[in-house]
Task: inverse folding
């Protein structure tokens, strides 16, 4: 599903060049539930951002379902992010002024290929999947951390994506809540065959993933 060849990314911080990815090669298969492990600063977030087409590499190739991401224009990237690739963030990235339902609806707003009925149905299914039926009209500041992450997961689900990228998805959750969120993600992986790639330090998550990859100084070291 993902094939990465010789990927380089360097950030420019004032006068200083900060190398983040240094010739990284990597593959993710359809159906993987894969964690990307590595020290802080090793390049995990950078890799996820490049895969999510939120940034572009300096060198190398990123193929998603056989398509070279470098060939996509900005509209096509935006389409991809609202259809086949979703992302979940450590700090949830919800819009405070919008209620739960409106936050979940966001990826569907630009989807002219779906009828209003289809959109409504997808939102209902996603809200039900994450168990937030009773909270549709709540604003994010009326929710617990675990509920907020469930909203972010539902928002990632409404496009019915092939791939969900998640950057430290359990880092801001207490232990019991983190386990519930992991149960939910595993269930989605198994029942919907959604491929997951997580950047994480969290032992609770690491213990339950099937596939582990280590990133050290911007390259993948091992992929058992
Ligand atoms: P991780 O997610 O594994 O902690 P990152 O991908 O965030 O690692 O960072 C990799 C390297 O790139 C680090 O040295 C970090 O300081 C640097 N970096 C990340 N984002 C930026 C940025 N926007 N500007 C400058 N340097 C950055
Ligand atoms: Mg990071």
Result:
């Amino acid at each position: 599903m993902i094939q990465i060849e010789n990927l380089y990314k360097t950030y420019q911080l004032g006068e200083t060049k900060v190398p983040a990815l240094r010739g990284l090669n990597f593959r993710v298969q359809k159906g993987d539930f894969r964690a990307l492990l590595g020290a802080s600063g090793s390049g995990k977030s950078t890799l996820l951002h490049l895969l999510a087409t939120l940034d572009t590499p300096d060198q190398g190739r990123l193929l998603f379902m056989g398509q070279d991401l470098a060939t996509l224009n900005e509209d096509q990237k935006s389409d991809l992010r609202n259809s086949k690739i979703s992302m979940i963030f450590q700090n949830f990235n919800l819009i405070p002024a919008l209620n739960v339902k409106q936050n979940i609806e966001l990826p569907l707003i630009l989807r002219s290929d779906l009828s209003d009925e289809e959109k409504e149905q997808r939102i209902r299914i996603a809200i039900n999947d994450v168990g937030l039926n009773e909270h549709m009209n709540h604003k994010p500041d009326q929710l617990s951390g675990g509920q907020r992450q469930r909203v972010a997961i539902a928002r990632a689900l409404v496009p019915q994506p092939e791939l969900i990228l998640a950057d430290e998805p359990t880092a801001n959750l207490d232990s019991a809540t983190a386990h519930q969120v992991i149960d939910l993600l595993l269930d989605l992986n198994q029942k919907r065959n959604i491929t997951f790639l997580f950047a994480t330090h969290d032992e609770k998550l690491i213990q339950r993933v099937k596939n582990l990859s280590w990133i050290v100084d911007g390259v993948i070291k091992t992929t058992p």
The pocket of magnesium ion (ligand 2) is lined by residues 44-45, 167, 199 (CB under 6 Å). The two ends are 17 Å apart (CA to CA). The chain has a mean pLDDT of 95.
